[in-house]
Amino acid sequence: MSQPSDFQPKIIAYVCNWCTYLGADLAGTNRLEYPANVRIIRLPCTGRIDFNLLVKAFEMGADAVLVSGCHPGDCHYTAGNYHARRRWILFRQLLETMGIDSRRVQFSWISAAEGKKWQQVITEITEKTQELGPYAAYREICQAGG
Amino acid sequence: MLDELREKCKQLLANGTVQVVIGYGQPAEAGGVVPVFITTPEDAQQLVWNDQCFANLTKYLLRSEIKALGKAAICVKGCDERALVVLERESQIDRTQIVVIGLLCDGVGQPRLPKCEACDVHKPRAADVLIGQPPADGQPLPAEQRYAALAAFLRKTPEERIAYWMAELSRCTKCYACRQVCPMCYCRQCIADKNRPVAISTSATLKGNFAWQITRAFHLASRCVGCDECSRVCPAGIDLRLLNLSLAQAAEKSFAFRAGMDPAAEPVIGAYREQDHEEFIR
Amino acid sequence: MSELLAATALRELVGRWLADGRRVAGPQCAKTHDDLHRHDLIRYGWLTAADQLLLAGFIRPLNSIKEFVFPRHEELYSYRFKGKQIELLPIETDPREQIIIGARPCDAAALGILDRVFNWDFRDEFYNRRRELTTVVTLACSEHDDHCFCTSVDSGPGDTRGSDVLLIPLEADQYEVRCLTEKGKRLFAGQTAASTTEGKVLAGPPPRLDLAAVGDFLDGGYENPEWQKITLRCLGCAACAYTCPTCHCFDMVDEGNAAGGVRVRNWDACQFAAFTVHVSGHNPRSVQAQRQRQRIYHKFQIYPKKFGELLCTGCGNCTRNCPVGLGVLPVLQSIVDKSQKNVPSPSGREC
Fold first, then answer.
1. Which tens digits make up the pLDDT trace of C28-85?
2. Chain A interface residues facing chain B, Cβ-Cβ under 8 Å?
């Protein structure tokens, strides 16, 4: 069990407008409580996610990143999430090789009806990141001079 | 083999089949083997073929000054020829307009470069002209052998890995030799040159260098053919091939795909399957 | 009369400089994990221990010492947006003295050139501050390779331009220490022993260029079609410019976001395609041959006309680092001097 911690992780969530964003909204309208550590960034579709965005999140001080969108088959733009999934499969390997903490990068499918799932995923990722602590390695990378 | 190469190129130029042969030469002042562009039959004598012929010449097929010289014949080793397959798939070249001179190769460098020890394309597979004797073996190498260097690297812990890259990338000066030498890096405006707004910091800091190398590696995912020129030319000696190997392995493991091996294969990025695995997605 | 210092004593001295809290840079082996690397790289870098310093057994480092006075990334000032106001904040600078030990004379000679550029029509405080804090100890070269051509560009293995102290290797692992400036004298005060043995600076590479012929060619050769032929293989990277001791182009960029950021200065190179792109989209140097030509003209005609010396010290780094064997000497030899060279030797990457 993790110790109660003063450390409040910064979680960046890149979410698609049509599913996960609405799912998060549903969590709100249902008054489901979830940790306020998450900063939500809304994109039209997970297919738009460029890996630069993940890198930038870490550069800007994120301790963990969540990428979430429509379930396969439900993409508002038909296939954006399929393309995204392909890229994620490849990108995870690059994270491994670089030694970038893959426990700090999470992917999920959360639909507009899954307010509860949003609550669960955010709670889990926050607790897990609290245990992991701040992402010291990337801070160090950003602070190193030229 | 060298005489055969020179004679063939001389003929191609003399009978007007091509106007330029892109090959390897060793001009005195260059101090080694370098790319040469032969435009007259007499100059075909300048061509060389030895284990110092490192360059992947396919890069030059996309240069406007070279296209302006006319129809080209290009000398390729097996690894280089894979680049032609990818470039054609991506509509950057038209194979019917190029004469491909395949050079049978048993490796370059003394000692042999790491890529040569993991090579299974000693014989270019789709050349118009093949020069040299086929090597005795022609068996495909198992994947474990081809990715052995990566496997060795991945035995390090994640903390050791990131410490390794922090040490290595601290030497990067953003000279972009890696990008300039790579046949797959042909974007007219590279994302690194975008500045309204800036997409990737141009600073040669650890932050900027991580951002650049991660981005470049990913933009090459399932496109890099493993010619390792990027690693060879890096003035700071950074072992970029490890990054490219990791994405190549991911493409092979998950999609049975190796860039440039099969002209008919569906690309990895840009295509998808409903059954693509997703056990890592919550 | 000369002053001598044993190699072991020199290394101990370097150790003391480090212990005193001074920053010390010198040639070192940037070796990484042996089982995954096929070559050792010798580069100038900050030393963390005296035994990292390499003083013999290689031609010259693959980079130059300019990065210690003209870093590849430098923060100029930071800014914060406060409503409609912008607050500018200075960057804290490192006040520590820095010593460059074991520099090649071709690197140090370039510093004088950089001093001029950074103080010509504008006094560059960022450069000057670092320059002031720097003491340069050069090591006269005992060997050269086919890429070295210092003797062809008014320099040589014992060039004292830009140097505060010149070390000349002697037999029995000793150096003659020639303090050339007050800074140099202060650094080695009390460290050396008087002697009658004098070091001899060796001859250096044979002449490889006829500067007069180069000048004549450049005067009339701007439109010569050979430029295109010779430089066709150039890839347009910055390996030459960034490893060159005298190249000094830079780009200024603001790196930040809606809250604020930092104005930085980064190295730039005339070999990049976008180097001369105008806001209109027009690019006066849109083809690589034009960019290569410009580099040669800058070094051998434009800068000399303005400042009276060449913008090149013949170190050969451009060719050593070039992926395709171009660089100043091969280009000039191709285009001006058609005489045969000796059998080429391998590039200077060996330890």
1. 988 554 434 334 689 999 999 999 899 998 999 999 999 999 999 999 999 999 999 9
2. 51-52, 55-56, 59, 72-73, 79, 82-83, 85-94, 96-102, 106-109, 121, 137, 140-142, 144-146
Contacts of B91 (CB under 8 A, 6+ apart): none
* Nearest CB to B176 within list C72, C228, C238: C238
Distance CA A65, CA B225 (A): 31
Sequence ranges of the domains in chain C: 2-335
Residue in C closest to B176 by C-alpha? C237
Tell me if B174 sits within 8 A of C73, measured CB to CB: no
Give the chains touching A; criterion: ≥3 Cβ pairs < 8 Å: B, C
Backbone φ and ψ for B227, nearest 5 degrees, come out as: -75, -15
Contact criterion met (CB < 8 Å) for A94 and B207: no
Q: Is C282 on the interface with B (CB under 8 A)?
A: no
Q: How far is CA A98 from CA A139, A143, B164, B217, C293, in A?
A: 15, 18, 9, 11, 40
Nearest CA in chain B to A135: B159
CA angle C14-C16-C18, nearest 5°? Answer: 75
Q: Which domains can be identified in chain A, with CATH numbers? A: 11-143 (3.40.50)
pLDDT digits (tens, 9 = 90+) for B44-99: 999 999 999 999 999 999 999 999 999 999 999 999 999 999 999 999 999 999 99
DSSP A63: S
Are the beta carbons of B280 and A85 separated by less than 8 Å?
no
Residue B263 amino acid letter? P
Q: What pTM value is reported for the model?
A: 0.93
Please list, in sequence order, all residues whose beta carbon lies within 8 angstroms of the beta carbon of residue B280, skipping any fewer than 6 positions away.
Answer: A88, A92, A107
Q: How far apart are CA A11 and CA C239, in angstroms?
A: 39
Amino acid making up residue C197 = T
Question: Tens of pLDDT along B172-192?
Answer: 999 999 999 999 999 999 999
Residue A1: burial class (beta carbons within 10 Å; 0-12, 13-18, 19+): exposed
Each domain of chain B, given as residue ranges in start order, spans 2-131, 143-255
Burial C213-229 (b: 16+ CB within 10 A, else e): ebeebbeebeeeeebbe
Q: Does the ipTM surpass 0.90?
A: yes
CB of B32 within 8 Å of a chain A CB? The answer is no
Helices B158-169, A80-98: axis angle to 10 degrees equals 80
Q: Say whether residue B250 is in contact with chain A using an 8 A CB cutoff.
A: yes
